[in-house]
Fold these 3 entries.
Entry 1:
Amino acid sequence: MIILYFTASGNCLAVAKRFDAELLSIPQLIREGKYDIEDDAIGIVYPVYGLTAPEIVKRFIKNCHLKA
């Protein structure tokens, strides 16, 4: 299992660490240009801003290719 995460204050990272999974930082994946993610299961952890996902998360999801 892979967990893609975005955290501003560290709370979402703390939640992501509760899963027995490989953790991948969304900002780091963007910097490295890695948009193809494949695993048995993929989860996404991020804070909710104004009842929606942060813009960085929305852009990443729009551009990435997930296969699970």
Entry 2:
Amino acid sequence: MATLDRFLNVMFEKQGTAVLLESDKPVTLQVGNARAPVTKEAVPTAKIVGLIKEIMPEGMRPQLEAGGDGRVAFGYITDGKRVDVEVDRAGPKITATLAPA
């Protein structure tokens, strides 16, 4: 089980619309227009890259590891539920949005 699966399980349990990971901010659950942190600690860029690499298709990993600006999107299935994953990178900052498909 990938580390992000526990956050995704909470998202599905709470009928959330997304799990958000942003450089140097806590992991956040979005339910409708409301956002609430689900971790106390801020997550550094390197940790977010590691979490995303756990769930992304192997062939896409070099694109994420390259560290350049850009966007990557892929699907992921956890516990039989599909999740759309979008990762945006701009310089040293990264933002990942994981939402029910």
Entry 3:
Amino acid sequence: MFVVGLTGGIGSGKSVVAEKFHLFDILIVDADIVAREVVEPGKPSLEEIEKRFGSDILTDKGVLNRPKLREIIFSNEGERAWLESLLHPKIGEHIMEELNYASSSYSILVSPLLLETQQQEICSRILVVDVPEELQIKRTLLRDKVPREQVEKIMNSQMKRKERLQRADDIISNTGTKIDLENKVLDLHQKYVELSK
């Protein structure tokens, strides 16, 4: 099982890069999507979260109020640690289940916290999508419509850019044109197909 761990800071364009790999029929497992699935209504994790934070952590429809939870955990280190200890093992199990069903020559695991968690241990290579920090902030503010302070807190909870780049096997600088990005992905796709043989 050849797994490429795709990571990068918030707003770097991980999802866009993953979509480009998906065009080659490569299995993409997205840790963020898995993280949403483990807290769907009726799941034990959501019940635990509700017990911990009270019922106003849910929307009127009984769904996890993610912005509210994000606000709590990024202003309280202890609560963030509690949430991670609850969710990370469950997320890890789901990720492994999905990767085990891969029929493509290699798979991609997209995870913003790949290098901060044990997820990196199942990866054959680490691919970092990189952009300057100011561009990360600008893109995230546009996309998420949240205060700059919240974006900076999220960035501070992630690995520093310099360290992330040092730990990469491959790097895509995502500051150019769409064509540039497509060419970089094509080159890496061909490389990964060869490496996975």
